[in-house]
Write a structure and sequence with these properties.
The protein is an alpha+beta fold and 155 residues long. It contains three helices and five strands. This is RidA family protein.
């Protein structure tokens, strides 16, 4: 077990299976020392636990938890091409999309779910730049979608 996966276990979490693509793309690709993930939905055991717009059918706190799940799925996608999460030198960028009710403006707070998880699991290596974007709708009516870019150590 990698040190990163041991830290996840210490937090009461485990790395899920990689979520299969919903269309013509790969969950993650590697280019040199960087891994780019596709947008990760908050899938759990192949299903979305909740659907709808944040600020309407989904609360901000529920969406924050879903963003955390997205980050776990992103880490699984990274591992699938990096081989070992201990190779992560740092998370460079996180981009999050929040399917938002027209008057909802708490997208940054929702994306804190992903950012806080990455920080808790990776420490200083999890500190990143981030964009939090409100959108009208996401695939499968998911409330949140997160993608990450990580830099790997050489080797």
């Amino acid at each position: 077990m990698s040190a990163v996966e041991a830290k996840l276990a210490e937090l009461g979490l485990s790395l899920p299976e990689v979520v299969p693509p919903l269309a013509a793309y790969q969950p993650a690709v590697r280019s040199g020392v960087y891994v780019y993930t596709a947008g990760q939905l908050p899938m759990v055991d192949g299903k979305l636990p909740v659907t709808g717009k944040v600020g309407a059918e989904v609360t901000q706190e529920e969406a924050k938890d879903l963003a955390r799940t997205c980050a776990l799925n992103a880490l699984a996608a990274v591992k699938s091409v990096a081989g070992d999460l201990d190779r992560v030198a740092r998370v460079v960028k996180v981009v999050g999309f929040v399917a938002s009710a027209p008057d909802f403006t708490g997208q940054p707070a929702v994306l804190n779910g992903a950012s806080e998880l990455l920080g808790a699991v990776l420490g200083d290596k999890g500190v990143h730049a981030r964009s939090a974007v409100g959108v009208a709708v996401l695939p499968l009516d998911a409330p949140v979608e997160v993608e990450i870019q990580v830099e790997l150590t050489e080797g």
